[in-house]
Structure formats: C-alpha cells, structure tokens
Design brief:
seven-stranded parallel β-sheet; oxidoreductase; single chain; D-isomer_DH_NAD-bd; alpha/beta; Rossmann fold; five-stranded parallel β-sheet; binds (2R)-2,3-dihydroxypropanoic acid
Length: 319
C-alpha cells in the first residue's frame, strides 16, 4: 500500500518527524522562514496530512486545491489561521495543541505583566544608554503587582494558569468569559465580572481569549476609556482582539499606564508601528509558548494527531 504524504511547514523536533515517518513519507520545509504561499498551495495538492504553523493560512483557496488532504494539525492552541468550517465541510480534520503549552504561556504572560508594571525593558535601555547617574527616589518607578487586582479576559486553561500565579502574588482575580467557570472560582477564588466592570476594577487586564468573529477588536476606544489611568494592558492572545489605534491613543494620552504585547494585528509588527515608539510598551515577537520543552511537546502532539487521523483513529486534540 502507498504511504500517505505529510507536509511539515517548518522544521520541528526530530522526534515528531520520526514518529510520522513510521507511517508516512514526510516532506519538511527546511528554510528558517514561513513556507511561501505558492509553495504551500502546491504542496497541499499532493498532501494527505499538513502539520501547519499559525503563520500558514489554511483557507478556502488552499482547501479547494487539497483534494487528498485528510488532516491539518496546527502546532498552536489558537487556530484562527484555519478556516475550520471549510475544512469540516470537506471532511478534513483539524487539530490543535492545547494543554502542553499552558504553563509556558502563563509564565510568559506573567513575565510580560511584570515587565510592563516595573518598566523592565525601559530600565534596561536606560542603563545601557549610560543614563544611570545616581539613585533617585522616583527613578523608573512602576506599579505594584502584589495585592493588585488582575482582570483575565478569557478564562480558559491559560487564564487559569495565570490566575494560579497571581494568587501567589496576593492578587484579587476577576475574570470574564463566555460562560462562568465555577472550578476556577473555587480553585483560585476568581470572581466573575461582565467585561465593563472588569475593565473598571482591574489594575491589570490580561487578554487570553481566542480570536473569533465575536472577539475581533473587542477592546477599543470605549473599553480603554473605562480602564484606570494606572492600569496595565497585556495581550498574549491575538493582535486582532484589540483595536491597535485605540490602544496607541490610550497609552499616548495616558488613559492607561502601560502595555505588554506579545501579539500584533500584523506579524511581524512593522518597525515603524506607532506602538513601538512608546516607552510604556513592552513588545515581544509572539513567544508565548516558546520554550524548548514546550515547543517539543507541541510538535509531538501535532505529530500524534496527524498520525492518528492517517491511521483512521480519533486524534487526541481535535478542534
Ligand atoms: C498558540 O499556540 O496559539 C500560541 O499563540 C503560539 O505560541
């Protein structure tokens, strides 16, 4: 019997590739940049399984050409790069990689929150520029993290993991979500709030909601105007959940105090983006889950999902 063909759109852990190779012919895009669109479309035509990254657009155009495709395994928990409805219509299974990245992403969320609150990157730039001439009572003063109020927008697994960290800092935890989470309320004492109330009460607003038509630009000018002038806004979900122009205005006009951003509407964020000109923005290149161990686990889970579908079994983490 002919082996199925799997296309892997970036170099991922060898263990993951080896596991798929046991049952399939594996073709890997070896270059250290996303596979160009034209090549991805051509590869998809000859592929039974696609191990994709969040930078690969798996849309109607691609799916209509991918006549043999049975499974798209996204190496990410988010899957807004995939037209899941179009895939399902064609009987193509979509999978993602939840759970394995929860703790690493929560660590990064907290690091970003603290860096923005305590002006870590600004202080580092200040020192390296030779501006540190003496200690001063107000030099690079930031905001308290301990005992502050954290507002989590999107209380999924990562939200709960962030809440566990916040508990260690004595923070009060508020959350809003499509539905209430009694387990989270029990485990970390989180209290449910409608979005507007959360925005008014929180010292830290952390975005952890997936990007969907309902959450696109859910935080804009009106929402920023509800937040405290001392508040810090952190986005580790997707850039599309926030109106970036409104965020820039809120920061520049001191409606809010600082922002920590791991994600942007357009990635990589252009270097002339207005948000990058502000000293009170800590900007990172979408590294939420980027630890060696976690990326290894994500690749392995994507491989297990691909192989399961190609062997006619249920994937572990279907979308
Ligand atoms: C995800 O998995 O969706 C993250 O954004 C990747 O780091």
């Amino acid at each position: 019997m002919k082996k199925p063909i799997v296309f892997v759109t970036r170099q991922v852990a060898n263990e993951a590739i080896a596991y798929v190779k046991e049952i399939a012919t594996v073709d890997v895009w070896e270059e250290d940049r996303p596979c160009p669109r034209e090549i991805l479309l051509e590869k998809a035509e000859r592929t039974d399984g696609l191990l994709a990254m969040l930078t690969d657009r798996v849309d109607e155009e691609l799916l209509s050409r991918a006549k043999r495709l049975k499974v798209v395994a996204n190496m990410a928990v988010g899957y807004d790069n995939i037209d899941v409805t179009a895939a399902k219509k064609r009987g193509i299974q979509v999978t993602n990689t939840p759970d394995v990245l929860t703790e690493a992403t929560a660590d990064l969320t907290f690091a970003l929150l603290m860096a923005a609150a305590r002006r870590i990157t600004e202080a580092n730039r200040f020192l390296l520029a030779g501006q540190w001439t003496s200690w001063s009572p107000t030099l690079l003063a930031g905001q308290n993290v301990f005992n502050a109020t954290l507002g989590i927008v999107g209380m999924g697994r990562i939200g709960e993991a962030v809440a566990r960290r916040a508990k260690g800092f004595g923070m009060s935890i508020l959350y809003c979500n499509r539905h209430r989470k009694p387990e989270a309320e029990q485990a970390v004492g989180a209290q449910y709030r409608e979005l507007d109330d959360l925005l008014k009460q929180a010292d830290y607003v952390v975005m952890l909601t997936p990007l969907t038509p309902d959450t696109a630009k859910m935080i804009g000018e009106r929402e920023f105007s509800l937040m405290k002038p001392t508040s810090v806004f952190v986005n580790v979900s997707r850039g599309g959940t926030v109106d970036e122009e409104a965020l820039y205005k809120a920061l520049a006009e001191k409606k809010i105090w600082a922002a920590g951003l791991d994600v942007f509407q357009k990635e990589p964020v252009p270097l002339d983006h207005p948000l990058l000109t502000l000293p009170n923005v800590v900007a990172l290149p979408h590294i939420g889950s980027a630890t060696y161990q976690t990326r290894m686990e994500m690749a392995k889970l994507a491989a297990v999902n691909i192989r399961a579908v190609l062997e006619g079994k249920e994937p572990v983490t279907p979308v």
